[in-house]
Amino acid sequence: MADLTHLQSLLDREAKSLQVPGAAVGVLFDGAEHVLTTGVTSVDAPTPVTGDTLFQIGSTTKTVTATAIMHLVERGRLDLDERVRQYLPDFRLADERAADELTVRHLLTHTGGFLGDIDDGESWDTGALAASIDAYDRLPQLFPPGALASYNNAGFRLLGRVIEAVCGEPYEHAVSRIVLEPLGMSSSFFFPWEVATRPHAVGHTVREDGPQVAHTWGLFRESMPEGGLVSSVRDQLRYAAFHLGASGEEPVGAATRELMQAEHVPVGVPWTGIGLPWLLDEQAGVRLVTHGGNIGNLQLSAFVLAPERGFAVTTLTNSAPGKALGNLVTDWCLEHLLGATPQAVRLTLREPTPEYVGSYDAGQWTFEVDEHLTARFVLCPELVAAGVEGMPDMPLALVEGCDDVTLAAAPQRAVGRFLRDDAGEVAFLHLAGRAARRIRDTSR
Question: Where do the coiled-coil regions begin and end (predicted)?
Fold first, then answer.
């Protein structure tokens, strides 16, 4: 039995230091489940976080959507390489050729090529997802399907609509029936009225005087397939155990789970590759199958599997610094439980040049890159009006000999890269897994 006393101490200490009001951690190691908690669900109504507290898990939901898709593939109701229009005949994109070529596999691997971060509506109507998809003919096509991986929330909305069309029922009902119920995930929900009557965490903004409750819900109905699941750390451990092969053949079998965790698209940074749709990485020779989520910089989560070691760790938090807390928890587990201590590396850097200066459009925000290679996040007015928390400036540095970029303050690994067009001109900033198109050159 693993002794996680030191991990509990780290969790308590770092949550307080980082101003994360509450967090829940689940660890699966040597066949045993461990749940650690700290803090409170809300600073306004402080109730202790427990293993049953519900958190919004954000984009880890994409792997649940993908599990439902692969269930349908196993049963011959979907084909990974079939065109989306086979299931949604009226589907349109701004680029007609791209719409005709787009496949289910493109969507699962974030290689659809159309703008991936789009505005959210405020509807809970059954038809909200279909209505959102009907507006995809206004999305810019950044590159042809299959040409480049760029993290794509909109693609998972589309997968959710495919599930609806094939199953003949709303996305949430289909996924609950196919995935949640067979796995015994009885503390996982999509709708706020289901969450409201159960112990749950609320999101917080962090101000100079400390964390403050954000009086807002996360995502609305059209966004459920990309990030809408609310879950407990105990349910996340059930989900992890299934994907590690420890709990049967439903909703998908072992061969399908392995297929989902295999590399389908090499990436390089910030991950080594993309599965279906797991984000793949490694540390000290240990292969990692990961995801995580961010709901408006208010609730952040991490989810990491090491399949060959039968290991999983998940961290659920209720403020923006929860991302850093999740990284600390994951790193502690990898080092102390798996012996995967990262080697100290310092990349060789080079000075920035004016050719990288400019504005790069990611859809819901732009990266404003200055002559020092600091990327400033500028949220679109709709997100500002909705109270979405911005991100701090990101000082970047160029890696010697290429267009890769690293964090200037911690140049241990590349976090993104600039991409060039056929003429050799800088055309995209690929950062946070997304290809943001250059819309303005401000170097002159």
Answer: none
